[in-house]
Structures are given as C-alpha cells and as structure tokens.
Design goal:
The complex is a heterodimer. By secondary structure, chain A is mainly alpha-helical. Chain A has one helix spanning 3-40. Chain A has one domain. Chain A is rod-shaped. Chain B is mostly helical. The chains are: A mainly alpha, B mainly alpha.
Amino acid sequence: MDERHEDERNARERKKRNIAIALVLGGLVLLFFLMTMVRLGGHVAEWFD
Amino acid sequence: MITAAYAPGYRAATVGDFFTLLKPRVMSLVIFTGLAGIVVAPGYVHPLTAFTALLCIAVGAGASGALNMAYDADIDRLMARTAARPVAMGHIAREDALIFGWWLAAGAVGIMGLLVNILAGALLAFTIFFYVAIYTLWLKRRTPQNIVIGGLAGALPPAIGWAAVTGSLSPAPLVLVLIIFLWTPPHFWALALFRSDDYARAGVPMMPNVNGKAFTRRQIFGYTLALVPVGLLPAFVGLGGILYLAVAALFGCWMIRESFAVLRETDETREPAARRLFSVSICYLFALFAALICEHLLSIAPLGAHLSGAWM
C-alpha cells in the first residue's frame, strides 16, 4: 500500500473512532437524563411544596 | 481531504481494535452471570436501573480485559492464543490501552455508584482491582495458584448484580459466586493442558508447567467433584427450583464424566479430553445460570428456604 492510501485509511479510522466516542458520550448523556427521571420518579413537584 | 500526516507504516487503531481490547467473549459470560444475580435477587428494580447495572458490569469487565492486555502485552506476544491481541500486535499502544482501560474502569465504577448504589459500585471497584492488581500484576507470573485466587474476580458479577437490586449482600448470591470460583480451575487448567507449550514459552507458571500434567489432571478432577454438589446448592437456598436442580444435576454429571476422561487421558500431545472439558465447562456454567434466569422469568417457584437475609 502506498503512503497516500495509508494516510487515507488512517484518517478514515480516526474519523470512525471520533464518531464512536461521540455516540458513547451521547448515550451517556441520555442514560444520565433517563436515570435522573427514574430516580426522581413522580415526586419532583413535592420538593417545591 | 487528508489533513493528518502519519509516519510511514503507521496503522491507526480501528474501533474494532478497541472493541477487541474489551475481551467481548469474556464480557458476555460476565454479563450473563451478572444478569442472573439481578434476576434472582428479591425485590423490585426499575428495568433502566437493571440495564445501567448490567452496562457497568460489562464495561468494568471490559476495562479489566483492556488493562490485562496492556500489562501482559509482552507475554501475549509469545503465545499463539493471544499473539493477535491489539496491544501485542502493536495496533494499539500500551499507554493508549492503559488510559482507555483506567478511564473505562473509573467510569463504570463512578456510574454504578452514582446511578445504582454505593455497594454495587464498591463491589465493582473491588472486582476490577482484584483482576488487575492481584491477578494480572501479582499472581499470574508468580504462582500456579494464579487462576484459583484470581478466579474470585470473575466469580463476583452475580454478587454485584444482587447488590445492584437489593443494596445489600447475603449468603444466597455468594453461593453463585462460589460456583464460578470452583468452576474456574477445571476450566482454565483444561485450557492450560492443551496450551502448555504456549504458557511455557511465555514463562507463565500454569499448573501443568509447574507441577506436571498428571498432578493437574487430579486437581481438575478434584475441583470438579467439589464444584458439582455446590452447583446443586442454589436449589437448597431458595434461588433455584426443580428445573434448575435437574439442569445442574445433568450438566454436573457431564462435567464429572469429562473431567474423568481428562484424568484418564493418555494423548498428551493433542489433549482431546481437555479440549472437550474446556468446551463442556462453558456449557455447564451457561446452562446453570440460564436455568436460574429462565425459572425466574417463568415464575417457577424455588425449592428450599430463601437465604436472602442481608448481611450488609
């Protein structure tokens, strides 16, 4: 494989890694949001009584 | 457009390389036994909390695998079974694997502690510490008892699952821990019998290399004889019912038969009996925990009194 093809391949792999990291971080945000809802349950309003 | 300039011959790590670093096959068994701990634990847990606990157990196991591959890259390179691992191959730098592994471990423990409960987080932290520090860094290269003691790390996921649901520990989940703990030596020593050249080349003091194959065969048979009755115990501590008892008895007989074949083995070059036992031991553990999970999903009542009174 020549150097240019290697560079293209490496850049492609780096992009895929970045997308994977973005997806994981997005998933974490969603998980924290949903788990906060689960833990608060239906009692959020009571805190402000 | 290409914006990065890479050194000639450099091969960037792929997403697949990082996934391999998590030891997905080991992870799947850990997820399964952790799930059993969650399912058999008394009380209600929100499905999303159960999912989060399982995710943390899986990521914690993956982190342990990544750290193991980072610290053991030098010996992995020497063994045919592990030579293709990403750090051993040089696809991922050792430092990158360490950073990846420690971040995942911290993340899994932190999220377990924050979103599930502190006890489950602490147990997960202990499991990762035990696997990395006690097994990988200390015992693995020093003693043929490495996988016996180190096996505790692989045995703990059912207790973590149980703690995730109940916030406590009791004797019942520790029976499941004991099953995996006793299962580990026959499973790994079967592998060590037919991979003894690999371990000898890497200088890892596995039982067949240190004490000989005949001694290892007797140890495998002895541990199997201890394992099979303990495998029946969940039916007597209120975890398993009649289906579990039947499965544990049937697969237990199969384990004894195969370990007896290992004891009588004469073909020390190919070790066909050890290869069979290695596969059968995976089926055994899978069958036992699958039976437990199925019974609880099908609402089959457990036999015996429930020993779920919390200790802590």
